[in-house]
């Protein structure tokens, strides 16, 4: 618990930040729809946000080396707050697209600043426990955030003010912490071909995690906006988003612990099959299930679909030599970001063509494909030696600094050089 208290201010900052992240995740698609933007264009704007995030992840190490963790976090938080407020002032889809790119870069910088700090501040013996608390808190905030705008119009200025307030408040614990800033990070990219040869199931799983989850969640508020649940509008969208995240929160730890005992790819296949069934039920039956029934089934979708990313990363680490873990982690992040760019585009086209059937039908089909891939890969390439089977830890797809969170990663460049 002492180690957790030492970095509590950093965990608190991310929880406040993710309140704004969950809130804007609901506001953006609903606001665009209120302006008359078609679903396909909304998907494009969501993809541009993911592209900005990817650009931020790529440039973050250099930015950290130039400015340091606190100053980079502060600047990125300020840019994010300005971006959110500007969305409430200019109701043009093209302007929102540009702002969302900037916000994607800024969010990547903020996460990288905090996670690199955590990676250096938390000792190896308690790193898994602290990171479990960190990621659980982040998911809780993503789940709670949308409820701050429940009942408000998607273009109500007050909704965007809430988001700007949280982004500004996230500055306080980071700027006032007495923790020592970490040394500037150093990263070397691994070629995607080499990454795929190392762990093909992990690469495909992470890619589809970006496609399925980002694509579905970017348009989820639009699907539920017409529901009468909680008065409809933003309230219904917040309830739906909360149900999906709650499902992922509940299953995350049990699925991870189970994957420590049996083949991870079989666990991924199982939870993806469950999630696929839930998505196809919503696609085929829709409101025939009843509004509460749809929300309940959506929770089962979230339980599987929002949990398998971390298992894919753990599977990749199982097969990775210790000295290559940083390159593998950063490579998987970029694969996820690429999927996050494609996902909203594909989901936007599917929803425009067939409404809710297209949105959830696409998610269900892709989850079935991933489940089959995992079973096939188990038969093609057996499980690694038990000695290399890394203990699972909950992981959210966040920027490059995540590479320092694995306990086998050397603490300093000097140690890394000595071990190499």
In total, how many beta strands? 0
SSE string, helices as H and strands as E: HHHHHHHHHHHHHHHH
Tally of discrete structural domains:
2
Shape: globular
Largest sheet features: none
Helix proportion range: over 70%
What is the number of helical segments per DSSP (H or I, 4+ residues)?
A: 16
Proper CATH architecture of the largest domain: Up-down Bundle
What is the averaged pLDDT score?
A: 81
- End-to-end span in angstroms? 33 Å
The amount of beta strand, in percent, is under 5%
CATH superfamily of the largest domain: MFS general substrate transporter like domains
Radius of gyration: 20 Å
| CATH C-level label of the largest domain | Mainly Alpha
CATH topology of the largest domain: Growth Hormone, Chain: A
Briefly, what is this?
The chain is mostly helical and 420 residues long. Helix content is 76%, strand content 0%. It has 2 domains: 1-177, MFS general substrate transporter like domains (Growth Hormone, Chain: A); 186-399, Growth Hormone, Chain: A (Up-down Bundle).
